[in-house]
Amino acid sequence: MAIPLTPQTNIPEQKAPVLSTAEIKRRESAALKAETITLEEEKIYRRGLVEIKDLIAPAAFEVKPTYFRLNESYGRTLFVLTYPRYISVGWFTPIINLSKTLDVSMFFYPTRSDLILKQLKKRVGNMQAQLMSDVEKGAPRDPMLETAINDIEKLRDDLTQGIEKFFQYALYVTIYADTLDDLEELTSEIEAILGGKLIYSKKVFYQAEQGFNSTLPIGIDELMISFNMNTSPVASSFPFISSELSSDNGILYGINRHNNSLILFDRFSLQNANYVIFATSGAGKSYSIKLEVLRSLMLGVDIIIIDPEREYLHLCEAVGGTYIDISLASKNKINPYDLPRSIGDATTEDIIRSAVITLKGLLKIMFGQITVEEDAILDRALIETYASKDVTPQADLSKIEAPVMQDLQSILEGMEGARELSLKLNKYTRGTFAGLFNQPTNVDMKNQLVVFSVRDLEDELRPIALYSIITYIWNVIRSEIKKRILVIDEAWWLMTHEDSAKFIFALVKRCRKYYLGVTTITQDVNDFLNSPYGKAIVTNSALQMLLRQSPAAIDNIQDIFLLTQGEKYLLLEGGVGEGIFFAGNKHAAIKVVASYNEDQLITSDPRQLLEIEAAKRQFEAEAGKEDETAEPAEEVLPKKISGVKEMGI
Ligand SMILES: Nc1ncnc2c1ncn2[C@@H]1O[C@H](COP(=O)(O)OP(=O)(O)O)[C@@H](O)[C@H]1O
Ligand SMILES: [Mg+2]
């Protein structure tokens, strides 16, 4: 049997209808006509539509020989004519950073190297001929000519080897002003800035419209005024190196308002990890710190916050932190007599001595003024208090039980000349304030985020409590070295007493050794800066942020931070979250921005908080309803939320 080699197809052949040529032509022209009509109709329809173009287009554009008028404002284009022999990187930065409205465009036209080489060869030939004729004539040497020849020879080498390429480079700047006078003034300003760098610019003449068009973001060069340049100087014209404040790793602090770049930093990579923030109330200090806290937690940094307004609770809950309420009524206690477990190679004697000094600082804040005799008595009494609990230079610090305030009281009562001190201390051991300092520590700091709330403390007790909380934190920090940040919000409380100011300063100075960065936030700028310790804290903080300032504080701020007049106004008029950020010796205008989710966690806007609370309650109610039918294991969520409610949010 024969097998067919080609596959057989059973598809019947399609019969195309046979049309005459005349018919085809007729149909084609009818289709064309119909299409033209539709297009025409669409054109008419589109003419009646309002587009974005119509909305943003100026109502009037008047062209004059050297400037143009755009509605109510005036504009003019300047172009660069020549450049000097040497040009430094970032030469264009002063123009970019000028706080004026300008449009800048740069055009780069690559040129074929072989054409340029031919021209250069001719030039160098001419110059060499000149040189030789000078020598023959016995004329003195011409350094200008020699330099030019050297430059050209070097360029010829680089072009031939492909190290450099050749471009024609055009740079136009269009400036705008409200009046003609302002326009002239701005023109001179820009010409002066460029002239200072030996770059000569000119304003357009009878080409105002072409100038305007050439600086529109449409990439059309209607002026065509270019300058020959090789790669290196062209590269130095790259404009966006202005006020750059960014490192390769770290967290986002905000947006650089000069050029919309990101301000990223790892504060632990600077010479110290301390940070100060100054601003008036409501300028966004706590908000920016909360953002930093959230973002740093993600990088595994441990954070401890002292919260005087109870505004970190929501954030703390959300990330599963420990919230410790310190007040007379609270069950949480901190004993100022605690000792750190061990500190590097410090001996037990050193540790006890430093604890006695710290405690004396605390007692001075508690008692107000004390005399020199009383100081000596306290010194002795404190050492005896420790000794009464067997805390001596020979003791093993991991096994001791620290004394409490009552033990000091007993020692003072038995000491000669200590009657008055003992009476003063009574208030803190048996009197109204007994709840706060007279018991062993029962708080736990084993969490990545720990917040101490001091809102419910009486004003009189606050500096004292802050002092003991910070001592406690300092002990924990020295016992185990870890990457940590300590945030002290509204730190001016601590500056009101010399002893606590001194203590914070010592902390800020020494914390680098323990991998700790201290953040101090304050709204009472003058008080803070007028204290010598406050000033020293500022100089010992590598990161600094200034947000909106009150007119009363601005002069002080301007002196200390060496601000320009422009920066001063920026701080007086800035919106919420806007200010100046300093890192080391660089600074830039910043805007602190949060994502929606971050904002929900950190806002302290009462309206937003009410909304969040309402949403929580609704969630709770719904969860409760579901709960009636759900498995018992799912009860966890509603319980947790009612826990949150107890804490007052
Ligand atoms: N960068 C910001 N973006 C949006 N809202 C902000 C920003 N900074 C602060 N806020 C809002 O402004 C208000 C005041 O901020 P807050 O940080 O509490 O001020 P401060 O601590 O300086 O007194 C709050 O309602 C806060 O939510
Ligand atoms: Mg605040």
From TrEMBL:
SUPFAM superfamilies: P-loop containing nucleoside triphosphate hydrolases. InterPro entries: P-loop_NTPase, P-loop_TraG, T4SS_component. Residues 270-572 form the TraG P-loop domain. Residues 620-649 are annotated as: Disordered. NCBIfam families: conju_CD1110. This is Conjugal transfer protein TraC. It comes from Candidatus Buchananbacteria bacterium RBG_13_36_9.
